[in-house]
Specification:
The protein is mainly β and 126 residues long. It has no helices and eleven strands. The chain has a single domain, classed as Jelly Rolls, CATH 2.60.120.10. A six-stranded antiparallel beta sheet has the order 1-2-3-10-5-8, with no helix packed on it.
Amino acid sequence: MSEARPIVVRPGEAQAGPATAGMERRQLFERNGRWAGWIRTDAGVAGGWHHHGQHDSYIYILRGSLTIDYGPGGWESLLVTAGDFIFIPAGIVHRETTSPDGDVEAFLVRVGDGSQLVNLDGPEPA
């Protein structure tokens, strides 16, 4: 029987995530449907509509602020700032827009199965 051990990922060991204009992603850990990473997004970047499949997302905003649009027609929104924790349930269609005042840095954990990113043309109509 193997003994469970702590895992340390040093800054230079993080894996670069998919390239997206205005975003820097680093995968820190992935195992058995659990994923952890870090993301930095430039000021004023508006992401596209998407959801994270069957993954719940747990996000802690380290620096900056952004707006998360969601719901029917994308009419609902949340403003989140440094120190806020966000839970986004699996399958929730949303998009993020970074404040024009500065970039955003966040730590995220996703737990679930299947694809972690499903891009869409937009939310369901209102």
